[in-house]
Amino acid sequence: MALEFKTPRGTKDILPADISKWQYVESTLREIFERYNFSEIRTPTFEETELFARGIGQATDIVQKEMYTFEDKGGKSHTLRPEMTASVMRAYLEHHLGEKRTLQKLYYISPMFRQERPQAGRFREFNQYGIEIIGTQNPLADVESIILAVEILRALGVQKSTLKLNSVGCQNCRPKYKEILRQELKPVFSDLCNDCQKRYHANPLRILDCKRDKCGQITESISPIYEYLCEECATHFDKVQEFLRSVKTEFVLDRRLVRGLDYYTKTAFEVISDLLGSQDSICGGGRYDYLAEEIGGKHVPAVGFAAGTERLITVLEKSDLLPAFGGSVGLYLVSLGDAATKWAFKEANELRRAGISCEIDYEKRSLKAQMRDANRLNVRMVAIVGEEELNSGMIVLKKMDSGEQESVSANAFRQVVIERLNRKTEPAGSPAKP
Ligand SMILES: [Zn+2]
Ligand SMILES: [Zn+2]
């Protein structure tokens, strides 16, 4: 019979063999976020479509082409979240989080959904981690976002990454820069790609991050926006650079770094790794002082970043930075015969309640097959129980790494196992602590 069902296009299963990587990365992320005093936020998987249309920008590719939108039975339009920032800001405003403490530092580790053309490293359901610092104008918050994005990579051992920095100005200075862009691009208009010819009129800033070679060559030497910032934006940009230097965080200015979303203001940054090929961005972020008003709230300045968890794991794999996992089972109770299996089941139950991870055989297999199973699970110890052992009241305990054996009385069995497994020796193949 042919298998009828497969994972939908652009989605994936994370199987037990891979789950340790995810758990390792996610627990490291949580630990770092909490060190910087960020609290986790979880929002619904779907929101009203209008939130994303307004919060991300009607003209963006995400809203135009990539959203999973559906009508519920009442005819209301909902959308699976394609990113998290609009949802977090909606939650901040809805629950008046700013009234308890003006400054809110929030993080998330969540799946997102975009109907993109599936390709290597791109999924329709993908995972992001990110932060939002809501409620302050201070460039220190921009810098904290940036160094946190970089610190995560450093803590996981990633040596080679590049931090790119730009400013996208504000509603005062950006229109003037758009005019300058149009003037500079006018003589080469016909060399731009079709998309960019449309962007020329609608939002010429977006020509700067066009991925086509020809457009890239044209914009390589375009006048940078940071030469045309208003006084407020220029001071902010200077402060961000000054603070970054003060904590010895290297960066390069990139005049073509513009975020595709309309609500971004001032700081824009990106962390890239050449290990990712053409999809080289691990993390992107910036300031978005207009978002709260865009979705119907008051003026609330904010800054944050979002990063792709799949991409981070790819970088860790390619740099050989993932620890060896496995060996979480402490004891395997090998049992031969019904009476022994009954005894093993009861002991396993008691040991599990006492905090020891253990496994038994369910299939009445031979001694050899059960030992093979124990090896496959990379257990630390094996106990062997047959009719003879039950009659004599002496159980054989074997340490798998050294092969050392001892006979333990059935009465003291549980106590001895707990003592042996709670000793401070790490099991073979257990993950190294970073
Ligand atoms: Zn400005
Ligand atoms: Zn183009």
CATH architectural grouping of the largest domain: 2-Layer Sandwich
Uncertain stretches = 426-434
Name the hetero compounds present: zinc ion
CATH C-level category of the largest domain: Alpha Beta
How far is the first residue's CA from the last residue's CA? 47 Å
The named CATH superfamily of the largest domain: Bira Bifunctional Protein, Domain 2
What percent of residues adopt helix (DSSP H or I)? 25-40%
Estimate the global geometry from the Cα principal axes.
Answer: elongated
Strand content: 15-25%
- Indicate the CATH topology of the largest domain: BirA Bifunctional Protein, domain 2
Question: Biggest sheet, strands in spatial order?
Answer: 1-5-6-11-10-9-7-8
Task: Give a summary of the structure in a few sentences.
The protein is built from 16 helices and 16 strands. It has 434 residues and is an alpha+beta fold. It has two domains: 16-173 and 229-318, Bira Bifunctional Protein, Domain 2 (BirA Bifunctional Protein, domain 2, 2-Layer Sandwich); 331-421, 3-Layer(aba) Sandwich (Rossmann fold), CATH 3.40.50.800.
Architecture overview:
With 434 residues, the chain is an alpha+beta fold. It folds into two domains: 16-173 and 229-318, Bira Bifunctional Protein, Domain 2 (BirA Bifunctional Protein, domain 2, 2-Layer Sandwich); 331-421, Anticodon-binding domain (Rossmann fold, 3-Layer(aba) Sandwich). It has helices at residues 16-35, 49-56, 61-66, 85-94, 97-100, 139-155, 174-185, 194-202, 213-219, 231-246, 291-294, 309-318, 338-353, 367-376, 387-392, 413-421; strands at 39-40, 46-48, 69-71, 77-80, 104-113, 125-134, 162-167, 252-253, 265-272, 281-287, 302-308, 331-335, 358-360, 381-385, 394-399, 405-409. The chain has an eight-stranded mixed sheet with strand order 1-5-6-11-10-9-7-8, sandwiched between helices. A five-stranded mixed sheet has the order 13-12-14-15-16, sandwiched between helices. The chain starts with 15 loop residues before the first helix and ends in a 13-residue tail after the last helix. One zinc ion (ZN) binds at residues 169-170, 172-173, 229-230, 232-233.
